[in-house]
Design brief:
By secondary structure, the chain is of the alpha+beta class. Helix content is about 35%, strand content about 15%. The chain contains 10 helices and 9 strands.
Length: about 350
């Protein structure tokens, strides 16, 4: 199934296993995570490993939304230690040549939450994969974008690594006085996404608004002042409007990079351009009067509502006809059950 695929054949774990003369198959894995709502007000984020050969998914861990940290980090303080532990387990499997992580299969919002990218409404960095800006997303430039040519420079693995190097600064806290001084000048901030410095500390090479980042040596930033010295900690130095908001431990895994993400068709097509096109088409139909009632002296809102009901009736009749004439429709087709303004 994966034999001959470049992502498998060129994976460093597969190459290492073959160089060592290993006869057993290096099992290809995919990583997946997403939010799941289980009641009106409650949800959790589930993290799974997919066995690509069998298609089976295995739950790694779950994190409820009500258990997420609320220090301003938008949940990252809670997610980091769990994701980092996941990485350690996967690293052990890959080090023994048992498996190779080929794929990140989550949707667009979930991917950005863990990898620290910006969402599509960001002014400067709306795309995690290229260098386009919101100002460049206009009718003049969009026609030039194709599957073969985005028309803009890609945001490469090298770019990502350079940004991480630029936006992180490791500090050695080597005495109790240094620990207490830094702790006294740390405050929680929603704007800076966590525990940040409220003043410059030139004696230690630290600047105002730098954020104390969760790391393997300090997985819980709230416990900074309770640590023993010497201690190595990481500060996030990026400005509030930069492309990245935090580093991602997943990319410490051998063979896993920014390019590993499999872009999902749901968010990039069905809930993107296709959704906008269908919405525009429906409003055009309603405004044209083709489906409007012929009665006079009706409120405009009532005319629109009746036109929508007529469209809905036509659509459901179309579904009924397909179910009669196409035996496989139930297997491959999806039906809209609700249309409303």
């Amino acid at each position: 199934m994966v034999q001959g695929l470049p992502s498998y054949e060129n994976h460093p774990v597969v190459c290492r296993a073959r160089a060592a003369g290993q006869k057993s198959l290096v099992r290809p894995l995919g990583l997946y995570w997403d939010g799941v709502r289980y009641s009106v007000h409650s949800s959790f984020t589930g993290f799974y490993i997919t066995d690509i050969l069998s298609g089976q998914k295995f739950v790694s861990f779950l994190l409820r939304s009500e258990d997420m940290c609320r220090c301003g980090c938008r949940g990252w303080c809670s997610l980091f230690p769990l994701v980092d532990a996941w990485v350690k387990d996967l690293h052990e499997l890959q080090s023994s040549n048992q498996c190779a992580v080929l794929d990140i299969q989550c949707d667009w919002p979930a991917y950005l939450e863990i990898t620290g990218g910006r969402f599509w409404n960001h002014t400067e960095h709306p795309c995690p994969l290229c260098l386009i800006s919101q100002a460049e997303m206009n009718p003049e430039t969009v026609p030039g974008i194709t599957l073969d040519d985005l028309g803009h420079d890609l945001y490469t693995v090298e770019d990502y690594n350079n940004d991480i190097d630029k936006f992180t600064k490791e500090i050695l806290v080597d005495c109790d006085d240094m620990l207490r001084t830094i702790a006294r000048n740390l405050e929680y901030s929603t704007a800076d996404r966590g525990r940040h410095l409220i003043t410059d500390l030139p004696r230690f090479g630290l600047q105002k608004n730098w954020r104390l980042e969760p790391s393997r040596s300090l997985p819980d930033v709230s416990q900074f002042e309770n640590q023993e010295v010497p201690l190595r900690v990481i500060f996030w130095t990026g400005a509030r409007n930069e492309r990245l908001t935090h580093m991602c431990p997943l990319f410490l895994l051998e063979g896993l990079t920014h390019d590993t993400w499999s872009i999902d068709i749901l968010h990039t097509w069905h809930l993107g351009p296709m959704q906008q096109f269908i919405s525009l088409a429906m409003h055009t139909f309603i405004a044209s009067g083709v489906f409007s009632p012929r009665a006079a002296n009706m409120e405009a809102a009532d005319v629109r509502e009746l036109a929508l009901m007529a469209i809905k009736a036509e659509l459901f009749q179309f579904y009924k006809q397909l179910r009669t004439t196409d035996p496989r429709w139930r297997e491959k087709g999806s039906e809209a059950f609700c249309l409303e303004f």
